[in-house]
């Protein structure tokens, strides 16, 4: 492990054991047999299925949900109050027609839909209908219409179980401010704060552009690394298939962060950069994906920098232009995307930046593996582990292609130095204890529906990086 300003071929770091508070999520898994109407208490069911903040007109009663557990599902109905395509929600459900209804599957479906970050609330409920149920029992027109579907199916088949997924949609257009610190470590900057090392920016994003969980954004930044970017992504190109699309265009002036081994200092120069990318993803199942991407990059390194160090650029004139190809496989069955407590995540990727052919051509091969596991070790204690490995091969790696720990990838609790290299081995271990289970409450004094929900929860986390 070598701190910047010394260059190293590998990056590794260790942080002391720290304790921190984090927001969000925990979910239990339990299956209740059919007929045990209150084997799961009413209060417990309300908390675990997040019905406390949902209108009674949007869900079946808790007693009905409990009584339906253990029965075979006849239909799944999705109800939204916005324009999200129900197909998007259906792709995340672990319950489908013909399955045996369990509390575990209801919870999994709820958390997966909530992880889309499109909804303020996601309520799951169910009801078992007998053949002689001939009239709706609710005065609400929405629930009444759904109950009519259940009674009609029950009349035809002798019985019916209906699962209802009800969501309330968020506000989708957000201005997102962001900032970063570059060129110095956090500790160094705190001793001598200056705006020269700060980048600030704003991203205006629509998170559900046409109702298919597609995102369109425009962003800009000022300060250390000024830039402008246009981006669009959708998991469903045609709205009803499983092929996704990602496109982006970025124009920026990237300042050098790498240390010159001869002077042991960071050479101060900017590199005008144009980056274009086009990617496709294919959803193979509920939990795994494959993706491929092609990119174009043009980087202009000042000739003065190339004259000072041969590592500034591949080309002697400082103009590096190259295409890149990438492929990746992702598997994820984690319970909650924002803060998982159970499940497994794997991402394996390979990229080829440039194809060499001459001493002045970029030709860098990289492979990365990101493995994360989340386990319940005690009823209220969870273990999280991560291993991230990045390996680099090929020709000369210019300064702009170096990798760092201390900017985007950080060792928590260790802010004294920045590490750079061509290869990374990063490990993390956490013990997570929920102090307050995540929940959603509706603030009735806020007149705008989309802004009237508050989601909160607390975790106590001990970790070592």
Q: How would you characterize the overall build of this protein?
A:
With 465 residues, the chain is mostly beta strands. The protein has seven helices and 22 strands. The chain has helices at residues 42-48, 62-68, 86-90, 103-114, 141-157, 186-191, 303-308, and strands at residues 10-11, 18-22, 75-79, 119-130, 159-169, 173-181, 198-206, 215-223, 227-234, 243-255, 259-260, 265-266, 270-283, 288-300, 319-332, 343-353, 364-378, 381-394, 403-405, 419-421, 423-442, 453-464. It has a 15-stranded mixed sheet that branches. A three-stranded mixed sheet has the order 3-5-4, with helices on both faces. It has a two-stranded antiparallel ribbon with strand order 11-12.
Determine the number of helices (DSSP H or I, runs of at least 4 residues).
7
> Can you summarize the main beta sheet?
15 strands, mixed
The total count of strands amounts to 22
Radius of gyration, CA atoms, in whole angstroms: 26 Å
Shape: elongated
Helix content: 10-25%
Q: DSSP strand (E) fraction? A: 35-45%
Unreliable segments (pLDDT under 50, ≥5 consecutive)?
Answer: 1-42
Question: What value does the average pLDDT take?
Answer: 84
- In sequence order, what are the helices and strands, one letter per element? EEHHEHHEHEEHEEEEEEEEHEEEEEEEE
Question: Structural class of the secondary elements?
Answer: mainly beta
Through-space gap between termini: 14 Å
């Amino acid at each position: 492990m070598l701190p910047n300003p010394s260059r190293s071929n590998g990056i590794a770091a260790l942080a002391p054991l720290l304790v921190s508070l984090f927001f969000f999520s925990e979910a239990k898994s339990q299956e209740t047999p059919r007929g045990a109407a209150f084997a799961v208490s009413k209060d417990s069911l309300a908390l675990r299925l997040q019905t406390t903040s949902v209108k009674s007109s949007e869900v079946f009663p808790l007693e009905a949900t409990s009584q339906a557990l253990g029965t075979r599902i006849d239909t799944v109905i999705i109800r939204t109050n916005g324009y999200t395509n129900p197909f998007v929600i259906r792709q995340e459900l672990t319950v489908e027609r013909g399955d045996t209804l369990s509390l575990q599957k209801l919870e999994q479906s709820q958390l997966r839909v909530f992880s889309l970050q499109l909804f303020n609330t996601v309520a799951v409920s169910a009801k078992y209908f007998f053949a002689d149920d001939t009239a709706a029992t609710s005065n609400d027109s929405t629930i009444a219409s759904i109950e009519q579907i259940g009674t009609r199916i029950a009349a035809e088949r002798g019985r019916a179980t209906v699962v209802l997924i009800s969501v309330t949609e968020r506000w989708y257009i957000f201005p997102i401010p962001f900032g970063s610190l570059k060129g110095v470590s956090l500790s160094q900057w705190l001793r001598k704060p200056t705006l020269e090392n700060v980048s600030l920016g704003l991203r205006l994003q629509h998170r559900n552009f046409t109702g298919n969980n597609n995102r369109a954004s425009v962003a800009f930044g000022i300060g250390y690394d000024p830039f402008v970017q246009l981006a669009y992504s959708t998991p469903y190109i045609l709205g009803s298939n499983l092929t996704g699309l990602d496109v982006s265009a970025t124009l920026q002036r990237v300042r050098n962060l790498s240390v010159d081994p001869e002077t042991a200092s960071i050479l101060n120069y900017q590199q005008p950069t144009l980056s274009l990318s086009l990617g496709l993803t294919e959803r193979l199942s509920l939990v795994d994906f494959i993706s491929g991407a092609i990119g174009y990059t043009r980087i202009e390194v000042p000739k003065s920098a190339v004259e000072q160090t041969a590592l500034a650029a591949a080309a002697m004139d400082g103009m590096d232009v190259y295409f890149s190809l990438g492929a990746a496989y992702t598997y994820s069955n984690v319970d909650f995307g924002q803060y998982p407590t159970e499940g497994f995540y794997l991402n394996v990727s390979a990229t080829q930046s440039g194809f060499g052919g001459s001493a002045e051509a970029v030709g860098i091969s990289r492979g990365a593996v990101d493995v994360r596991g989340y386990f319940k070790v005690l009823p209220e204690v969870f273990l999280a582990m991560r291993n991230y490995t990045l390996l680099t091969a090929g020709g000369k790696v210019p300064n702009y292609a170096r990798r760092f720990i201390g900017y985007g990838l950080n060792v928590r609790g260790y802010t004294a130095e920045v590490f750079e290299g061509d290869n990374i081995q990063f490990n993390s271990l956490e013990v997570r204890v929920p102090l307050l289970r995540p929940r959603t409450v509706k603030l009735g004094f806020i007149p705008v529906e989309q802004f009237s929900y508050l989601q909160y929860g607390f975790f106590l986390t001990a970790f070592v990086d």
